[in-house]
Amino acid sequence: MTGDWDLAEECAQEAFARALERWPRDGVPRRPGAWLTTTARNHALNRIRRGATETEKLRELGRMTGPQDPPDPSGVPDDRLRLIFTCCHPALAMEARVALTLRTLLGLTTGEIARAFLVAEPAMAQRLVRAKRKIREAGIPYRVPPARLLPERTASVLGVVYLLFNEGYTATEGDAAVRVDLCAEAIRLARVLHELMPGDPEAGGLLALLLLQDSRRAARLDASGDLVPLDEQDRDRWDRAAIAEGVALLDEALGQGEAGLYQVQAAVAACHATARTAAETDWPQIAALYGRLAALTPSPVVRLNRAVAVAMADGPAAGLALLRDLEEDLRDYHLFHAARADLLRRLGRRDDAAAAYEKALALARTAPDRRHLARRLAGLGPRET
To answer: Count of alpha carbons within 13 Å of 213, Cβ hemisphere only?
Structure first.
């Protein structure tokens, strides 16, 4: 309604503040959502009347008091998913629309989003500011898109759900290694997407990936909440129903055309999930899949994962050689230094491994990550003199 993201957020916050003040005294309205929307809209009208010139007043008030769009031209059955499609506007760059959606609709912090994109937090904050400014200055209309326009936004929506799950599955800050609420919401959204677009192989691939990853959640932490490495997990605690569903979804998606980003990642997850023991993991196949993934999206993190898989398939020296080209891109990424430390440890280079563990420890932001790395570092024993 306002055409101004910051004003809209401020007015929504004002509406919630008034609700907290009035509802305990006057009772909850019969239609709380409508009460909040009307209160926010009235606050916006008052702000525009006070601050705008006469010409701007007429333009803005006409837009806010004129006929509104149909309530749901999209056919998307879920409120939050409908908002995500609305927020992923194609007038913005892909990264900007995904980041703005994660920040505004899904509650991730700017720091969490920055780490998902491997950029500094101030840089991500500036990108969000620029995106909001472009929306305001270019008059980009934020309306629920009709069903025929959903396909042009689907890739962005898949990216939003994927990154939401990642932050839940491997939290980047705080005291918990896993945020179950984010994982559950991402899987729920992925299910709705798959039901909405049953012929989209990437929607099916994403749901398969999330189910296969989440199937291991119960075994990823010990009783103290500390991380358990994949090769040490109790596989009897893995969710076999989720694995079976994920594999079936992956098979269906792979039969719908050439494998895309999420299908290939789901295939990697399936290799792990279907191995009866850690020793039976098909590391050469996983390394090959990461090679294919790197061709689709040559990100440093994908190349890091490929290096780890190559190390498991061909030995730590082979993996370490691949890591050398990533040092500049991933110098502030604690998992890069942790992976390098593990390979150095396996090669018997204890002092070098200790230095790499210390770098990883300095960069890790969650308590479970820090405890895990500290144990690994202590396990090396005293350094040579």
So the answer is: 24
